[in-house]
Design brief:
alpha/beta, about 35% helix, Rossmann fold, 8 strands, about 240 residues, hydrolase activity, HAD_sf, globular, 2 domains, hydrolase, two-stranded antiparallel ribbon
């Protein structure tokens, strides 16, 4: 069930909504599709059985947008710690983790990472567009606040959502990562709104860190790609229903 932290006393007080990206507005493609597409980019064709086994191993090793890796090798520890602050560390961490999985597809680790950088590697949730549009129509400002190591603006442009987002506060650009209050305060500054009139919507405890910046927070459970994750609950809290 969705959990709220310090909801606004009156829906009329909400002037802006901050959204997490992964697990809130969009989800990565399913692992087998990810592996098959990356292998194809390397000129290799994988059968379903082989792709499924390989996908399981790669997800266990550590996939961006997937569960945390079971183990981070010592030579990747520094990049892993800095992955949301620097583009080079984000790529190095995830290509390095993928490289720990044996495969006969040359260049697969980089091709797997490159799927993150294109909109085709992601799927917006069904409620994303209607929720953002309704907020936009109501005059409520929107920012995307994400712990991430690459630019996601092209994804929103590809999905036709750019006009529904007023600002992007991305950790690798801001130099701070959630739950640090600074990234939420930066997003509020970009929008020109008071944190006390702002709602943060995400899917992890890190997103609830917005409370320390003075925002209200709504934490929703992440869902599989293509499934409703309850994002529409945002509209009730923002007074748009």
């Amino acid at each position: 069930m969705p959990q709220t932290t310090e909801p606004p006393q009156s829906a009329r007080l909400v002037e802006a909504v901050l959204f997490d990206f992964h697990g809130t507005l969009a989800q990565v493609e399913d692992p087998v599709t990810w592996v098959v597409a990356a292998a194809a980019a390397c000129g290799a064709e994988l059968g379903l059985a082989k792709a499924t086994i390989l996908a399981d191993r790669l997800v266990t090793a550590g996939r961006a947008g997937g569960p945390l890796p079971h183990r981070v090798p010592p030579h990747l520890a520094e990049h892993w710690a800095d992955r949301d602050l620097y583009e080079r560390s984000h790529r190095a961490a995830y290509t390095g983790l993928a490289s720990t999985v044996h495969t006969d597809v040359e260049g697969l680790a980089d091709a797997l990472y490159d799927r993150l950088l294109v909109p085709e590697g992601w799927l917006p949730y069904p409620d994303t567009e209607p929720t953002l549009r309704r907020l936009h129509e109501a005059g409520i400002k929107v920012a995307v606040v994400s712990n991430i190591g690459f630019d996601i603006r092209p994804h929103f442009a590809h999905w036709g959502l750019s006009g529904l987002v007023d600002a992007f506060a991305l950790s690798y650009e801001v130099g701070r990562a959630k739950p640090d209050p600074a990234i939420f305060l930066r997003a509020c500054g970009m929008l020109g709104v008071d944190p006390e009139r702002t709602l943060m919507v995400g899917d992890t405890p890190a997103d609830a860190g917005a409370v320390q910046a003075g925002c209200a927070a709504l934490v929703l459970p992440a869902a599989e790609a293509g499934r409703n994750n309850g994002l529409g609950a945002t509209l009730a809290l923002a007074g748009c229903n």
